[in-house]
User: Fold this.
Amino acid sequence: MHKIDMRDEESLLAHNRELAEEINKKLKERGIRSIDVMGAIGSGKTTILEKLSERLKGSYRIGALAGDLTTTIDADRIARHGAKTFQISTGKECHLDAHFISHAVDEVADEIDLLFIENVGNLICPADFPLGADQRMVVISVTEGPYMVKKHPYIFAEADVAVINKRDLAEAMEVSVEDLEADIKEISPDTRVVRMCARAGEGIDELIKALGL
Ligand SMILES: Nc1nc2c(ncn2[C@@H]2O[C@H](COP(=O)(O)OP(=O)(O)O)[C@@H](O)[C@H]2O)c(=O)[nH]1
Ligand SMILES: [Mg+2]
Assistant:
């Protein structure tokens, strides 16, 4: 009979949670607010972080950690808007974990008061691996189709804020933004939902408000 031993996985997750708590404590002691940004590849995470950095650079000293398999494209994009950035290359790992963050955080933590962490594009594994951020945000876009939320309940249950992005393409995709929002609310009534067209900067003010920034 095929048997899977869950004990190893459970201890791995417990270890990650402990480390995440330590990271959160360390960030708080340094006066840094932190936001973990999750979502599928291409949903608009980097675009949103570019817009947030541009809009908030007068009010906060911003840092960003960008998780990606090999490239520095996302960190470079965000850095152009004045944020201090560091790319975490995960190799073949499909999500960031607290270990990655504990090593990378010192690269940007001096003289910042707001830290964004762009997770690797994935809607499954990041749900199980908190990174020690104060808030978790998930970005989906209408181009991912109408069942995106229903198929990934765990990540929405984890999220304080959910963005429904690319609303400019909703009609072409024949996807209802209202239905996606209702799906999120059904899974997680307390998650704040923000509708955006990030490329045009629409919804940025609402997002800033939802994040309490
Ligand atoms: N039409 C449209 N395209 C968008 C929007 N937001 C982002 N994009 C585009 O979607 C692509 C992927 O965006 P990116 O921010 O790199 O996604 P990430 O992989 O989640 O970081 C880019 O070509 C963006 O210009 C939007 O609101 N509407
Ligand atoms: Mg990106």
